[in-house]
Amino acid sequence: MSFPNNRMQRLRTSESMRRFVRQTALSVDNLVYPLFVKDGKGLKEPIESMTDCFHFSPDTIVREAEQVAKAGIPAVILFGLPKKKDEIGSLAWAENGVVQQAIREIKKAVPQLLVITDVCLCAYTRSGHCGMLKDNKIDNDSTCELLAKVALSHAYAGADIVAPSDMMDGRVGYIRQCLEKNGFHDTAIMAYSAKYASAFYGPFRDAADSAPAFGDRKSYQMDTANSDQAMQEIALDIEEGTDIVMIKPALCFLDIIYRAKQRFDCPIAAYNVSGEYMMLNVAAQAGLLDKKSAMLEMLCSIKRAGADIIITYFAREAAKLLKS
After folding, report:
1. Residue 312 is assigned to a structural domain of this protein
2. Direct distance between the N- and C-terminal alpha carbons of the chain, in angstroms, rounded to an integer
3. Containing structural domain, residue 172
4. What percent of the chain has a predicted confidence (pLDDT) above 90?
5. 48 with 90: CB under 8 angstroms?
6. DSSP letter (8 states) at residue 12
7. Which of 35, 53, 99, 197 could tie 47 with a disulfide, CB 3.0–4.6 Å?
8. CATH code, 40
């Protein structure tokens, strides 16, 4: 028998020893902070469904972006709430849309902060679906053309990375070709490559006013039971020109993050989504767990699974702890 020659607890005897042999190092450099930008001026409105999250207007979001950069977080991702919706989501690619305004303001004030933009139509269409409808079904190809227009408008405004979250087939190729054609060779794409039709998006849909008016998104987002299909989705997006791939949500799909990291030689992002965020917050508010410890454990698990980039509403709070 190996005991007592092998005592595993020898390497756990103190915090210094645990740090000395720690395999996974969670860093502020891994974090992206999501921000919601809403039409208007002087706005900082609490989002009822999401603790410590707010709707900002393009002018007030600058102060928040400055604080994010000061915390050492390298990037934000922007989600827009337009002043009105229509059948095709036309304000998504408007030159003076809320996201486009926010990009310009942030890049002017904090040029070193990476600005990632969500590219989708769900918050801009009356249907609340992520694409154009034909006979109440998603019209994939016409949607791809509009998504390319959205991405291009974000690039013109100064976005560093565009992030299509719609799950249309072929949209990465449409966007890459459009960006190249218009001279945006250095604008990166972070595709929501394996985005599942998850139950954990509820608080976000309230925050972004993006819930579908009818039906669901299961015809275009992934079945939560499938894993091989995720590898195929990721491979296709890489072939079409994405620079970073994303798995969403994170916690219920750590196996997908792990498989992607083992198989693909590109940066892997994971989205620690609103339902995961609020699940922990509600438990902490009820006194069922220690919020700070649980938060770091959650984020570390995502990093340990293989994520290079973690999009999380905990980013600012985690950054303080990681830098202390």
Report:
1. yes
2. 42
3. 25-323
4. 86
5. no
6. G
7. 53
8. 3.20.20.70
